[in-house]
Amino acid sequence: MTDYTAPITDMEFVLNEIADLHGVSQLPGFEEATLDLVSAVLEESGRFSAEVLAPLNRIGDEQGSSWDAGEVRTPEGWLDAYRGFVEGGWNGLAFDAEHGGQGLPWLVATAVQEMWHSANMSFGLCPLLTQGAVHAIDLHGTAEQKATYLAKLVSGEWAGTMNLTESQAGSDLGALRTKAEPSGDHYLITGQKIFITYGEHDLTENIIHMVLARTPDAPPGVKGISMFIVPKFLVGADGALGERNDVRCVSIEEKLGIHGSPTAVMSYGDNGGAVGYLIGAENRGLEYMFTMMNLARHAVGVEGLAIAERAYQQAREYATTRVQGRAAGSREERVTIINHPDVRRMLMTMKSQIEAMRCLTYLVGAALDKSARHPDPGTRKQQSDLVELLMPIVKGWCTELGNEIAYLGVQIHGGMGFIEETGAAQHLRDARITTIYEGTTGIQAADLVGRKVLRDNGANAQAVIETMRESSAELGGLSGATFSQLKQRFDESVDGLAQATDWIVQAQSEDPRLPAAASMNYLQLWGTVAGAWQMARSACAAQRRLDAGVNNPDFYKAKLATADYYSGQILPKASSLLAAIVGGSRSVMGLEESQF
Fold it and tell me: Which of 44, 137, 242, 527: disulfide with 141, CB 3.0–4.6 Å?
């Protein structure tokens, strides 16, 4: 497995030219997020990721976490790395200073998270889950709960989890059976949860589980779900740890990938009931869960980007060193495989889509900041609407691409990609879970169509499409055949997206199954066109920099080349997706169940 180097130059380009770091730094509370400070944060995070986390990636894959009588040990080096992570203040990067955080924008945290997950996704999953617990308690917890848990969670001294899934329920949360019986100032939790990432481990002295359960009088289905704080060790009034709670890890899973990350089966109440504390009001747990889920979905989309970046770096390194064959049209000596056009095609496919994903995930990171802190209510609403629409696309499209790009990484290695010693196969195995985490891609597609488009008859989607057309106008202001082609292709794809959105709305009245049948293709269409939108913006920004005169023109010329490649090689998929949506969705339900 090759070394990891954080792509800081590209990250800073996206932060400054695409995601509006300057504008985010003007928001109340973010005034210290200057370009110089952010550059220093990126440099130090890049160093920590490359020197500490990345070398453990292969170790974690080979050793995995181990379970013994309810205790879980993480792989060799994990504990020291986590201590360094906490001491560096990385866990609290984007949380308020009043709880011990750094108070930096989520946009900056997005870039830093990309580094963690590129370097070692299995490791990065632990702080990802803790951040979700912090967010839920901060938004919905009582003053006492905040005082008890937030400082330790923000620092990373304690870890957090999200306990949703049960074996009989899966993604159908309405079928949850875990019970919560009132008992004085707390509840007693009984039940079992599966697939709990970092549900048990040796990295922190306490683990704070966020558990979904039902109270005795809860209505059926999702309306009867409540959320509870269930600590591994009970916490006294003075903040000291008390007795072990009635919660234990009964096993950890053997998995395709992310072996370093323990995926636990958690049992609550085997000896009378685990002490749990209600968050907010009863029967509003699903609502509270989604405040955790939204951030988690964004973070998993970043994981798709991150794995793709790591796979690309490894493939690029192999392609520039592996000597095999002669260049097309040449009888000269053998060359490195990067000289072969098909290898160039695969590398360009990887690189251009990674750049599109980075722009989109960072853009949504900035929108999260603006939706929370912008002083103008209208702007907050507009940014919130943008987040709502793009979140399932970030999660679904970026993770699907992460898998495709990791696959190409193996392909570029040829037979050696199938051999574990190169490390290319690990990226493909690790990437596979990302399309399942926090709701499968199909669930993201259903959310996009059902909750984000049909809910307002496509109004928000069409508003974002109009914003895309503004970027087209900017392309039209630049001279040259390349920009003319970019504009024509982009305009056609945006028109197609608008047409598909209208079709989704109209099809709902004809047959409610049709939008669902089209949903996956619709999500992929959105991702493909949104990626083109960001590549168009990148091309315009790069040309502005070239016109102004820069010290590193090759970097900006490369931006133009990748935008051109995306436009000519990736964006044409949009027309076939449109055809499948409008002309092929009815065929999805063409067979009776017995005919399969």
Answer: 137
Band the pLDDT of 333: cuts 50, 70, 90: confident
CA distance 489 to 418: 37
List, for residues 517-533, the tens digit of each pLDDT value: 999 999 999 999 999 99
CA distance 241 to 232: 10
Tokens of residue 379, six digits? 């702007």
Q: What is the rounded distance in angstroms from the CA atom of residue 14 to the CA atom of residue 562?
A: 14
Contact call for residues 262 and 199 (beta carbons, < 8 A): yes
CA-nearest of 219, 251, 246 to 234 is: 246
What is the bridge-based pairing of β-strands 158-163 and 206-213? parallel
The domain of 253 spans: 156-282
Residues 469-503 as b/e (b if ≥16 CB within 10 A, e otherwise) read: eebbebbeebeeebbeebbebbebbbebbbebbeb
Q: Domain holding 246: CATH number? A: 2.40.110.20
Tokens of 527: 């991702």
For every residue of 235-261, which 3-state class applies, written as one string? ECCCCCEEEECCEEEEEECCCCCCCCC
CA distance 420 to 424: 7
Percent share of the chain, pLDDT over 70 = 100
Planar angle of CA 92, 265, 226, nearest 5 degrees: 65
349 occurs within a structural domain: no
Do 392 and 444 meet the contact criterion of CB atoms below 8 Å apart? yes
Q: What is the pLDDT of residue 270?
A: 95
Instruction: Point out the catalytic residue in the list 114, 420, 438, 592.
Output: 438
Cα(82)–Cα(85) distance, integer angstroms:
5
Q: What does pTM read for this prediction? A: 0.96
Angstrom distance (rounded) from CA 87 to CA 514: 52
In a domain? residue 167: yes
Nearest Cα residue to 121 out of 335, 406, 340: 406
Among 231, 254, 282, identify where a domain stops. 282
Choose the final residue of a domain: 282, 316, 340.
Answer: 282
Q: Measured between alpha carbons, how far is residue 419 from residues 382, 416, 425 in Å?
A: 48, 5, 7
Q: Is 404 a catalytic residue?
A: no
